[in-house]
Amino acid sequence: MKIAVAKYTIDAPESFAAFADKQARWLGEARAAGAELAVLPEYLSLELGATFGADVSGNLHASLGATQAYHGAWLELFALLAREMRMHVVAGTFLLDTGVGRYRNRSYVFAPDGSHAWQDKLRLTAFEKQAGVIEPGDALKVLETGGVRSAVAVCYDSEFPLPVRAQCEAGARLLLVPTCTDSEAGATRVRVGCMARALENRCFVAQAVTAGAAPWSPALDTNTGEAALIAPMDVGLPSDGLLVQTRGAQRWATANLDFEALEASRAQAQVANDRDWYSQYFPSVSRARVEAFGAGAPSVGRKHA
Predict the structure, then answer these.
(1) DSSP character string of 141-166
(2) Where are the alpha helices (DSSP H) in the chain?
(3) Cα-atom radius of gyration of the chain, to the nearest Å?
(4) Model-level pTM?
(5) What span, in angstroms and rounded, lies between the C-alpha atoms of 141 and 198?
(6) Can you give the residue ranges of the CN hydrolase domain (predicted)?
(7) Could you give the CA distance from residue 249 to residue 35 in angstroms, rounded to a whole number?
(8) Handedness of CA 1, 203, 155, 182 (dihedral sign)
């Protein structure tokens, strides 16, 4: 399967139509490159805040409320583009009102027939907590995407091993990670999380990022990072884990992911973190204890690494 991940430049669209034209252009580039699945970044819906003018776009709460008017058109737009381009589309995230003035950071995934599923972000960053109106999701999902089981981990979620492990135990072999980071440290944390999840679970990871500056938005003001496709670091796979990543002004990183080869690599693995995961679960490591230094030989039965 050929996958494309976006280094998506934030703009200030004047209307939903302008935003829709941009999505068609960007996804058209991915399709022209042969992509069967394309990933756009987190907070994509907040770009639409610019359509309401400075009083709204400069206020996060006002932007969240105003952009709800576009939710139906958003679903129609990406369903249409997925059908027209005959590919799966991860439409970044839309911050959706749950009906009580609180919002979930929802990543919609569209199939080539125009149908869709979603995964909500499960853990909130400090920025999201401080906003006071964003709430976490409460369910993990795994999706069938073109014969490959995939799962979504929205940005910060990629830094936590257990939920992703549960998705991989349900058959996911491709982790889709729409992200938005405003600092080098943030970009590094998410990248390390993505690489760790690939290592632990022997899965591919597809990370999309935001790029450029949007001083008119409190959420999209500064953007840092490179989009990348990541593999486990093992025999027959890149030693640094990077299949491909964007550089400079490059808008998409694309690569063919060979899932049969990924499965076959288990047989010749130098390490098998995925298979050895359960070896972590034994009584003596359920809780660590503080122990004083002492003289003499180790006690019988004590294991030392």
Answers:
(1) --EEETTEEEEE--GGGGG-HHHHHH
(2) 16-32, 54-57, 60-66, 71-85, 126-131, 161-169, 184-201, 259-264
(3) 21
(4) 0.94
(5) 18
(6) 1-259
(7) 19
(8) negative
Say how far apart CA 25 and CA 102 lie, in whole Å.
Answer: 32
Could you tell me whether strands 204-211 and 228-230 are parallel, antiparallel, or unpaired per DSSP bridges?
A: antiparallel
63-to-96, 209, 216, 217, 278 alpha-carbon distances in Å: 11, 21, 11, 9, 45
**Which residue ranges form the domains of the chain, and what is each CATH number?**
2-285 (3.60.110.10)
**Closest by CA position to 275, among listed 176, 193, 201, 168:** 201
Query: Tokens at residue 187, please?
Result: 């970009």
pLDDT in tens, 156-191: 999 999 999 999 999 999 999 999 999 999 999 999
The Cα angle at residue 32 between residues 28 and 38, in degrees rounded to 5 = 60
Q: What is the pLDDT of residues 26-59, one digit of tens each?
A: 999 999 999 999 999 999 999 999 999 999 999 9
